[in-house]
Amino acid sequence: MATQHSRSAARLMMAPAVILLLGWMLVPLTMTLFFSFKRYLPLRGDSLERGLDWVGFENYARFLSSSSFWPSVQATLVIVGGVLVVTVVLGVLLALLLDQPFWGQGIVRILVIAPFFVMPTVSALVWKNMFMDPVNGILAHLWRFFGAEPVSWLSDASLQSIILIVSWQWLPFATLILLTAVQSLDSEQLEAAEMDGAPAFARFGFIILPHLARAITIVILIQTIFLLSIFAEIFVTTGGSFGTRTLTYLIFQRVVDSQNIGLGSAGGVYAIILANIIAIFLMRIVGKNLDR
Amino acid sequence: MGRIVLDQVKKRFGDVTVIPELDLEIEDGEFVVFVGPSGCGKSTLLRLIAGLEDVTDGKIVIDGTDATEVPPARRGLAMVFQSYALYPHMSVRKNIAFPLRMARLAPAEQKRRVEQAAEVLNLTDYLDRRPGQLSGGQRQRVAIGRAIVREPSAFLFDEPLSNLDAALRVGMRLEISELHKRLKTTMIYVTHDQVEAMTMADKIVVLQAGVIEQVGSPLELYRRPRNTFVAGFIGSPKMNLICGPEAAKHDATTIGIRPEHIDISETDGAWKGTIGVSEHLGSDTFFHVQCDGLAEPLTVRAPGERALSYGADVHLTPRREHMHRFDAQGLRID
Ligand SMILES: Nc1ncnc2c1ncn2[C@@H]1O[C@H](COP(=O)(O)OP(=O)(O)OP(=O)(O)O)[C@@H](O)[C@H]1O
Ligand SMILES: [Mg+2]
């Protein structure tokens, strides 16, 4: 897109998509902002037809002063961070493993991708009932087989369990992106490093990992966007109890359980702010990595 | 020291035999060039010596010790790859220092050696750049720098100049030759460019399909090619190979005569023919001449400028003392 002409043509052709996306985003955003300044409790008889009372920043103040706000931010960050660490570390290892030639490579690669196609609700239910159930779960049987007391995962190690379930879903994505990156590494570089006297660990640290840096940042960026809003996994497993109430889940509870739309909307605005802080933070790092 | 001996080395990839059985001795300090057509196993042979591929059978002896099972890093060899294989995320300085860092040399010593190598290779101004910010020739020099800091017992080069343009190739060719004169280290150099082979080598190894066709100094190969393959491969333009009745007159199946050993005249000579394409290089003129009674056109070199036009009738005379004769197996007859 070098010439003036091709640039304006490009703008023209992108316009419909941009306008659609903007509308898609702007309508809910303005509605959220609008409700966040209103008192809106449908069970108490408030409705749009009768007009809503303007309450200023009261909803914001109440959401922030609620004892569950900071714990929910903390839970969100712990889950997002935990899943990122697990998926990136295991993703790199799996990608290196899958890059090796072995018998049945094609089938194994498809199997690795499979979890990505399972719906979050379904996978969370499968984990909850088939693996983590303290009476009938496979893990409980395993524990009993070794003579140990079965762990009630979702109440005693709730955050870890959620991280495990979500990581399981996102690992294929990370693995896939990292695998393509591993495959694009020039094998002569590794051979050169081998001749230069670098043992396997040094080759990983000095050659493979820097080569993967770009792919890793992309994995982190994309996953963060989706992980900030995980919901189904919490809804069907712990229902937000045992310290697994994330910001998203807290907003859901304010709107649906307590039927306080104004308060929930204020929470939504906080969530947007949090997401943006993280996004700016990440873009900085990514920008640095992608510019090279 | 850098004496390398290949003893009955064989290499198979699955069912494909790339190197059937090969013996070769490379003396310390020699500049050895492997030449051969594409796919003849030059790179494979080099990688076997480097240890990047395992031999299927046979022994590789470096400086008197059997190195067949020794990992690449401990063979004391350094390799320069065709794609340079520089580490893209490290600066030139770090690239060159990498082998020293892996050998856990003291930082001061690392710095000294890197700077010395940079000086030799004219890289001092570029030490803090990334490989991506260098030209092809500079990258090539970084790759060589990374090889020389290790002070290896032999250098292995795999077509190091094939990515460079013609002018730069000539320059780098000289630089590598000069480096060899100065370091006096064994160098093994792979190329399919016979001009590189002729100009740089102390010893040329001509390979075809994994088999050594001839080993010798450039002039030995030029003067006394052992068979028709070497005869056709060494020398530029190619030697004219003539079969049939004309060869039978000299008691041979094939006779060979180089373009520079044929005299061209407008009036009289042994063979009569018509001129086809002519190539004027200024210093020389090459004529492609279709002779009566010969299947293939002959290439003839005339020094300087010769104005002979397309379709002109000429007479050619081969110089008898420079004629090569080959038997039915393609082997030289003396
Ligand atoms: N890893 C491999 N597996 C199977 N066959 C291989 C492998 N590596 C090389 N070969 C085969 O071995 C033969 C020699 O390859 P090699 O790379 O040594 O050729 P070369 O002489 O270096 O050619 P070029 O001048 O084109 O680089 C080729 O026929 C090639 O197909
Ligand atoms: Mg090759």
CATH architecture of the largest domain in chain B: 3-Layer(aba) Sandwich
- Beta-strand percentage range of chain B: 25-35%
Strand content of chain A: under 5%
**Sheet with the most strands, sense and barrel status of chain A:** 2 strands, antiparallel
What is the chains' assembly state? heterodimer
Q: Tell me the CATH superfamily of the largest domain in chain B.
A: P-loop containing nucleotide triphosphate hydrolases
Order of strands in the sheet with most strands of chain B: 6-7-8-3-9-10
Strand order of the largest sheet of chain A: 1-2
Question: Cα distance, first to last residue of chain B?
Answer: 38 Å
Q: Quick one: overall form of chain A?
A: globular
Highest-level CATH class of the largest domain in chain B? Alpha Beta
Q: What is the gyration radius of chain A calculated from CA atoms? A: 24 Å
Unreliable spans of chain B: none
Number of distinct beta strands of chain A: 2
**SSE series of chain B:** EEEHEEEHHHEHEHEEHHEHEEEEEEEE
CATH topology of the largest domain in chain B: Rossmann fold
Instruction: Kindly report the greatest chain-chain contact and the residue count on each side.
Output: A-B, 19 and 25 residues
Q: Helix and strand succession of chain A?
A: HEEHHHHHHHHHHHH
User: Given this structure, which CATH class of chain A is correct?
Assistant: Mainly Alpha
Question: What are the low-pLDDT stretches of chain A, counting only 5+ consecutive residues below 50?
Answer: none
